[in-house]
Structure formats: C-alpha cells, structure tokens
Design goal:
The protein is of the alpha+beta class. The chain has two domains: 45-107 and 270-326, 3-Layer(bba) Sandwich (FAD/NAD(P)-binding domain); 112-261, no CATH class. 28% of the residues lie in helices and 25% in strands. The protein has a seven-stranded antiparallel β-sheet. The chain has a three-stranded antiparallel β-sheet with strand order 3-4-5, with helices on one face. A two-stranded antiparallel ribbon has the order 1-2. The longest helix is centred in the last third of the chain and has 19 residues, at 308-326. The two termini are 28 Å apart.
C-alpha cells in the first residue's frame, strides 16, 4: 500500500479490509505500474507468447509471435481465463502444461450467480445494503455467511456479497446451492415482529401491499407480498398472527435459488491453474523446469475481492524477482 501511495495512487480501505484506489479506477493501478516500470528501464514488448523452449530440464527461450528470445529464466504470469479483454485468456495454462506442469481445472470464482427465480428479473437493478447472505446446499449445510451489499440483475444476483459467496460454491455437479438473505440482520425475529406490529398500527386501514413502505424498498414490496402468501388487498388490521409470523420469516430468510455461475469471462478471477505442488513457494520457481517462474493468477490460488488477489500477484512476483536477482 505504501508503494502505491508513493507512486501516485491514493488508496482507501473499505469493509473487510478491502483496499481500492481512491478513484475506484483499476486503470490508475495499471498505468502507475507501467510508468514505474519504464522509469526503471523496463523494456516492454506487446507480443503474444506462443511457446516456451526448454532443454535438459532448463528453460532456454521464449517464442513471441515472430520473435524468439533466448533466456535462462522467465516469469510466466499470464493470468487466468477471466477478463479476456486484457489478454488473460487461459493461454498460460497451455504454456505451463507444454513443459510438464499439472493444471488444476480452471473455474470461475468471484462471479455473479444465475437464478431461475422470476422475481430476480422483476427486481433487476435493485440493491440491498447491510444484509446478511448465507449459502446452503441441498442438505442444509452452511457454506458461507457474511454481512454486506448485493444487487439483483436480469440473470440473478451479483455484488460484493455474491462474488465472495461464489468462491465457496465450487461443485455444482454434486451440490444444489441456494441463497438465504436476512433483510433485517440487526433485528431478532421478535424485534422484527414488534416493528411490523407498529407499522401495521400506523397503517391500520391500508391494504397490506401499501403497508410495507417503511420496511422494504418499493421494488421489492410486490415480491414480498407475493411470497408471503398474504393477499395484497388484505387490510393490515385483519392479518393474523400466523400470517405475520410468515412475513417475519420471509424478511429473515428471503430465498434465491442458484442454477449456476455466470461464464468464466465474467468472473473477476479464475480458480484453478498451475498446481502449487510443482512450485517452490519461497522463490516461485518451477520444480520441474529450471529457470521457469510463476506469479499471479495462473497459479492455483485465489482469494476474496478487495485487493487480495492483486496482493497474491504482487507478492508472488516479488518473490520471483528476488530469486531472479540471485541467478
């Protein structure tokens, strides 16, 4: 963080120790790194690497389009399969595999989730703040629980909470995941029931559909009414205790089904990659090919959103660079 502040990128720290540029622009990070590299005499060639050369278990060169560069060491940091517009298309996996490395099957991580629930489309663009999201499988096992923000979309849900949750949902072939949203995590069920009673008293002569404006956003009210099973024209003074309890449970356990993740090219990062068992963790050098180093997302490591994956990239690159200096 001190390094980026020093080279002209002010930072901010948000909930969960997530660190971002003050500008919220990733371009500021990329531009600062490029500028810093050029100032230090780094020569940059914008060419697609098509092959790595090795002989007798040691790296001998890199082929980049029409150019072949002889070298005794290189750092393979081609990223994962996310954000193909940046050149991170998964080509690095093939390069590593060509020299004998094992590739753990790449999967999207930190990715929006698809839902078949029609009310997600109905609420697209509607955001939830300070809610608790939980992820369960078909047996009721809890995989994830966190407080934060999320967003409904035309395909399902996204936002910081959803992206973090997705990193725990890796096995769609074996599990059927579903989400539970606590819309009022600061209130117990009894406190929420008391609050609803106060609102119903306040709006005693109104229809049920018009008595939730203090408890929920305008976009979400029709969905809550429909899922509660209480007819929208019911006068609130005639709603039964059991109906009210059902409404409380809906606020504390709003359901969203999950049919799967969005495609990997929409993911923030890729899970999977070059097996860490084949990399020296201190120097990031290959255990199979002398002179071949790895850094960043091409390795089978990943973390939450908020700068943690970038930290992995920079830390592994730093370790590789320190080792390269000693060669």
């Amino acid at each position: 963080m001190a390094f980026f502040e020093r080279i002209g990128v002010p930072l901010k720290t948000e909930r969960g120790n997530r660190v971002f540029p003050l500008s919220d622009s990733a371009h500021d990070i990329a531009n600062a790194l490029e500028r810093f590299g050029r100032e230090k005499g780094v020569r940059m060639l914008h060419k697609r690497v098509t092959a790595l050369r090795a002989s007798d278990g040691a790296l001998t060169g890199v082929v980049a389009e029409d150019t072949e560069i002889s070298c005794r060491s290189a750092v393979l940091c081609a990223g994962g399969a996310s954000y193909p517009g940046t050149g991170s298309t998964g080509d690095g996996y093939a390069l590593a595999k060509s020299l004998g490395h094992t590739i753990v099957s790449p999967q999207p991580s930190l990715v929006p989730l698809v839902s078949d629930d029609d009310y997600c489309v109905e609420m697209q663009g509607f955001s939830l703040r300070n809610v608790t999201l939980r992820v369960f499988d078909e047996s009721g096992k809890l995989f994830f629980e966190e407080l934060g923000e999320m967003l409904f979309t035309h395909f399902g849900v996204t936002g910081p909470l959803v992206l973090s949750a997705s990193s725990h949902m890796r096995d769609y072939d074996k599990h059927k995941y579903h989400l539970s949203i606590d819309l009022k995590p600061g209130l117990s069920e009894q406190q929420l029931d008391d609050r609803i009673l106060r609102d119903f008293k306040k709006y005693t002569n109104r229809d049920f559909a018009n008595a939730l404006q203090d408890l929920a956003g305008h976009t979400m009210i029709p969905v809550l009414v429909r899922l509660s099973g209480i007819p929208e024209e019911t006068k609130v003074n005639s709603i039964t205790k059991e109906q009210r309890r059902a409404l409380v449970r809906l606020f504390k356990d709003f359901p969203v089904s999950v049919s799967g993740p969005r495609p990997v090219d929409e993911a923030i990062i890729t899970s999977g990659g070059v097996s860490v068992k084949e990399i020296n963790p201190k120097t990031m050098v290959s255990k199979l090919v002398k002179g071949l180093y790895f850094a960043g997302e091409i390795i089978d490591v990943d973390a939450y959103t908020g700068g943690f994956n970038l930290q992995i990239a920079w830390s592994t690159a730093y370790a590789a660079a320190q080792s390269l200096e000693l060669e």
